[in-house]
Amino acid sequence: MIVINWLIYLKKKKDNLSLFQSLSPFIDFMASTDMDKIHEVTKVFPPSLSATEISLPLTMYDTLWFKFHPVERLFFYQITDLAHHFFYSEIIPKLKQSLSLTLSHYLPLAGHLIWPQDAPKPFIYYSSNDGVSVTVAESTADFTRLSGNGIRDAVELRPLTPELLTSDDKAAVISIQITLFPNQGFCIGLSSHHAVLDGKSATMFIKSWSYLCKQSDKDANLLLELIPSFDRTVIKDPTGIDMAYINNWFSFTKSDPKKRSLKVLQTIGGNPNRVRATFQLSRDDIKKLRNKVLSMVEQNTGKQSKQLHLSTFVLTCAYVFVCLVKAKGGEDNRGTMLGFAADYRSRLEPPVPANYVGNCVMSHAMVATKGDYTKEDGVAFVAEKLSDMIRGIERGELEGTKETLENYIEMMKSVPGGIMLGLAGSIQFDVYGSDFGWGRPKKVEIVSIDRGGAIGLAKSRDESGGVEVGLVLEKQEMEAFASLFVDGLKN
Which domains, from first to last, does the chain contain? Predict the structure, then answer.
């Protein structure tokens, strides 16, 4: 998710709002939820033969996200007539056994972030006593409704989402919740610390876990492309950009550098006034958008198609962003900021391995006005701007300086009261490829978009070349967006 989008969301929160006041809407919802019970909260440990101690430093790409809220995903698996006995005697033991085996390859994920007084910045530490928190729960909620695309209250997914524990002294790297829906299916929830894992890393972990679970063999080995690399020496930072970002966070939060805290500045998810929905763009929709944008750009500027980077990503973002800005309304001079995170693994020199586990992404953003989006060629305008940004990245115009995070905050200030749009997820991750042995997910949701208002992206489940777009908006905005989205494709 784009850094700026989340920072402006935090600034809108009242500084003196008590924790109870922040949590009260969420607590009220939990009191009336269909979550019947939590059966157990336990830890799953790597095999006893694993290394006894590991420590890993945070790189500059990690410290950029140091205080960012956890990334939360849900994977829904539909099994008709799923009985309690089968779930507790077959599914849960296999998931736990394969998770333990997976952690033997991903040991740092079983550890914590810590920050000793003699250390200049936090680091990841694993010892033989560490493991991953796993909650097993049961719900009588409507599985079909929660795993569908239709409009429903955003808070409905919160009870399925595991809490990632953070404190002043220690922060978990990941946490997991497995929820049974009797006679309907089950759901796996993963919360991950953004200072340790980016989206590609978290997806690689889930794919590794699902692969080993499906093998049903405690001696099974990971596929070569799933074997993780935690080598931090591949990230070069000779000028100390990592510490600049740490100091930027202290400045932004107005906190004393001597009073170190590993608590993330997460907003309380589950605003009861917001709703969630998923929209789809087919391959044919993308093709029509491409033709329309090319026609408009060539007509307005004379640019030829070979000069534009009109990928599925660019066209999806351009169309969705325009529909969103129109749905949010306001005057034409209302400021807007949109951004996305680019994967730098293949773009650094020398390149970082594709199986690198950690953050290797950087945010890129553009500022415009609402009027730029709402004019007749608004989609072409945004597509052209995004195309230019991506072309720049391909030419090696990469972000990542001591001023980067500070510049984001300044950009945020340049559009007071404006519309902040960011992205979470990617159409490159293939999240629907995570089959634990009981079929592919029926639905994958990025729950954490309800914390900062980002747009969730995923490659369509049917592998047709389409895109899924997840949104959390005020109900009136969602209804307006849905109308614009559907009508725009018809026209």
Answer: 3-253 (3.30.559.10), 274-490 (3.30.559.10)
